[in-house]
From TrEMBL:
It comes from Celeribacter arenosi. This is Ribosome-recycling factor. The keyword Cytoplasm applies. It holds the Pfam family RRF. NCBIfam families: frr (TIGR00496).
């Protein structure tokens, strides 16, 4: 009556990998006191009637540890890029030099570092929840298969495999968080 059940663990892993990739992007946007072109990724500029990432309107460089420069290709967009950076909440004051926008990265104080570690913790918790949601989807597929005639032994084997996968990814999230918090607190 029942065909052999095969859980698509590749799909579960792909979705959990996507969660980790999203977490990496969120962590990259956190300012650690060192210059990084990734910190500008969430900033969008109103260019030519639509919202565009900064790296699509100019060249982003990190010439020194505390400086990011943006060489805007179109002179007409320099003001818009500057305004987008000011309004982004990054806490950086852009300086104009022709079509080049310089972003000096200020030193972080202790209080701001603690705030950033809390923000990183929130990002990590959202990632854990996303991983657990993928686990829940896998478990629901297994329960449905049990209703279709899967044996209890097979159910236990699949459930333990999904739980093992979940534990592995939760550990990866925790490791990423620990690394990011050390990076933020480093003076």
């Amino acid at each position: 009556m029942s065909e052999e059940f095969e859980l698509d663990t590749d799909d579960l892993m792909r979705r959990m990998d996507g969660t980790l990739a999203n977490l990496r992007t969120e962590f990259a946007s956190l300012r650690t006191g060192r210059a990084s072109s990734a910190m500008l990724e969430p900033v969008q500029v109103d260019a030519y009637g639509q919202m565009t990432p900064i790296n699509q309107v100019g060249t982003v460089n990190v010439p020194e540890p505390r400086m990011v420069t943006i060489n805007v290709w179109d002179k007409a967009l320099v003001g818009k890029v500057e305004k987008a950076i000011r309004e982004s909440g990054l806490g950086i004051n852009p300086q104009l030099n022709g079509t080049i926008i310089m972003l000096p990265i200020p030193e972080l104080n202790e209080e701001r570092r603690r705030e950033l570690t809390k923000v990183a913790g929130h990002y990590a918790e959202h990632a854990r929840v996303a991983v657990r949601n993928v686990r829940r989807d896998g478990m629901e597929q297994i329960k449905k298969a049990k209703g279709d005639g899967m044996s209890e032994d097979d159910q236990k084997i699949w459930e333990s495999e999904v739980q093992e996968l979940t534990d592995t990814y939760i550990k990866k999230v925790d490791d990423m968080l620990e690394h990011k918090q050390e990076e933020i607190m480093q003076v």
